[in-house]
């Protein structure tokens, strides 16, 4: 079954090439297609395109289908082109002629776009949950190890004293900014395209505000041409936000891989969380961190891939957009797997004590020595020369302790403030409003 099928059969080769992975990917969109139809048919009844009796039958059966999807009992039959066709076919088989009426006032174009936006909203919420779990783990580690010093590097040369508190806390705060980008992408996605039809609206007197409210959207995509232009653009914006999260997680994975190296030896993992070598019996490889790093690099390439697919398309719908789904839809699960695995690894990470007692880290304290002289009244440039001369002559002695107290430094991490920022960002998504609207729709 195809929603566009007439009397002429399409060649099998053409169908196979154009459908591609749509059936497989559409299973991810199935619950959202039903949600869209629940809202759309209620709107159709309000403008007298469905009778109350037909609406009742349609709503009840759509909710049955939704429950089948949740239980894993729904599938797209081989002869059916996509999820939209499958849902309409099931309705028609189960309740008769009323099932044939649900497509009035919409096109597959705005139906797909709606499904994508509902999917994006849901997956962003899941991603935020995973990001927050990693954030909480990082904050906990930062607090637990805040007094353990760690070499800081510039140019991969030892530079100044850092701490595990700073290191873990830095990645926690980075995630706050990443969620700000994700929140912006969420707001772009949280606009209702339904009613734009093929991209030019409908001659039916559709009540687009009604479906906006029923589906918990923050606003409409008002201009019907722009609603369709938003396909591809929305995915690119969201993928850029996902890439921002991936950048943070990938960099953390790179640090962890480096710090597990025997030449650094700052952290370690239990043996059961590492892998071995086929010929070197001593090896304990950080494969999980390396796979996370690679997956995150791949996610960072996604916005560019989407930009190349959509970059030279004029306004209106084009089949090129189907290819965006193949890379975009699985990206959420890929990122969430990296987030969840990184959280799990950090729950088991082992931090080394007394790292800076090694003589090779002596010069990490040169800036502290300069600053101590400045505090005693020596001009900075003279203090810099004094310490430089002591290093050159081999007479440099490190300060007995590190006394960094300003906001965000070793002795004043600011984790409470970072935690407060994260809570504020998460509350800004206002997921509760969407959850309430959808629960009413399914009631």
What are the main properties of this structure?
Fumarase C, Chain B, domain 1; mainly alpha; 443 residues; Fumarase C, Chain A, domain 2; 14 helices; two-stranded antiparallel sheet; two-stranded parallel sheet; 3 domains
Helices and strands in order, then pairings?
Elements: H1 12-19, H2 22-46, H3 52-70, H4 83-95, H5 108-144, E1 149-154, E2 157-163, H6 164-189, E3 191-192, H7 208-214, E4 219-220, H8 224-260, E5 267-268, H9 287-310, H10 321-347, E6 350-351, H11 366-375, H12 380-393, H13 415-428, H14 431-442
Parallel strand pairs: 3-4
Antiparallel strand pairs: 1-2, 5-6
Detailed description of the structure:
This protein is mainly α and 443 residues long. The chain has 3 domains: 12-101, Fumarase C, Chain B, domain 1, CATH 1.10.275; 108-145 and 164-204 and 219-356 and 417-442, Fumarase C, Chain A, domain 2 (Up-down Bundle), CATH 1.20.200; 358-412, no CATH class. The protein is built from 14 helices and 6 strands. It has helices at 12-19, 22-46, 52-70, 83-95, 108-144, 164-189, 208-214, 224-260, 287-310, 321-347, 366-375, 380-393, 415-428, 431-442; strands at residues 149-154, 157-163, 191-192, 219-220, 267-268, 350-351. The strands form 3 sheets. The protein has a two-stranded antiparallel sheet with strand order 1-2. The chain has a two-stranded parallel ribbon with strand order 3-4. Helix 5 (108-144) runs antiparallel to helix 13. The longest helix has 37 residues, at 108-144. The chain starts with 11 loop residues before the first helix and ends with a helix.
């Amino acid at each position: 079954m195809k929603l566009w099928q007439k009397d002429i059969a399409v060649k099998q080769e053409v169908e196979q090439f154009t459908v591609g992975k749509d059936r497989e990917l559409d299973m991810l969109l199935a619950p959202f297609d039903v949600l869209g139809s629940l809202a759309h048919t209620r709107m159709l009844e309000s403008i007298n395109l469905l009778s109350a009796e037909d609406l009742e039958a349609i709503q009840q059966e759509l909710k049955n289908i939704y429950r089948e999807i949740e239980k894993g009992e729904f599938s797209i039959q081989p002869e059916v082109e996509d999820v939209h066709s499958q849902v309409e076919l099931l309705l028609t088989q189960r309740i008769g002629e009323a099932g044939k009426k649900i497509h009035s006032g919409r096109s597959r174009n705005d139906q797909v776009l709606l499904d994508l936006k509902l999917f994006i909203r849901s997956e962003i919420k899941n991603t935020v949950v995973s990001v927050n779990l990693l954030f909480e783990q990082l904050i906990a580690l930062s607090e637990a190890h805040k007094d353990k010093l760690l070499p800081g590097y510039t140019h991969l040369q030892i530079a100044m004293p850092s701490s595990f508190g700073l290191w873990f806390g830095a990645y926690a705060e980075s995630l706050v900014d990443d969620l700000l980008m994700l929140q912006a992408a969420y707001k772009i996605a949280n606009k209702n395209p339904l009613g734009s039809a093929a991209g030019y609206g409908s001659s039916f007197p559709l009540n687009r505000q009604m479906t906006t409210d029923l589906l918990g959207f923050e606003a409409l995509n008002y201009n019907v041409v722009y609603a369709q232009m938003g396909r591809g653009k929305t995915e690119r914006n969201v993928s850029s936000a996902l890439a921002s999260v991936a950048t943070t997680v990938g960099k953390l994975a790179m640090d962890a891989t480096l710090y597990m190296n025997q030449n650094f030896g700052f952290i370690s993992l239990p043996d059961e969380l590492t892998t071995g070598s086929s010929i070197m019996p001593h090896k304990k490889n950080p494969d999980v961190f390396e796979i996370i790093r690679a997956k995150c690099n791949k996610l960072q390439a996604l916005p560019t891939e989407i930009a190349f697919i959509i970059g030279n398309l004029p306004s209106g719908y084009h089949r090129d957009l189907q290819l965006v789904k193949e890379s975009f839809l699985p990206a959420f699960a890929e990122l969430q797997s990296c987030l969840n695995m990184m959280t799990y690894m950090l729950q088991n990470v082992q931090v080394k004590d007394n790292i800076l007692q090694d003589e090779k880290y002596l010069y990490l304290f040169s800036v502290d020595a300069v600053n101590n002289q400045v505090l005693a009244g020596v001009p900075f440039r003279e203090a810099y020369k004094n310490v430089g001369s002591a290093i050159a002559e081999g007479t440099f002695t490190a300060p007995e302790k590190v006394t960094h107290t300003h906001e965000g430094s070793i002795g004043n991490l600011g984790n409470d403030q970072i935690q407060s920022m994260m809570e504020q960002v998460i509350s800004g998504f206002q997921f509760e409003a969407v959850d309430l609207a959808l629960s009413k729709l399914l009631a």
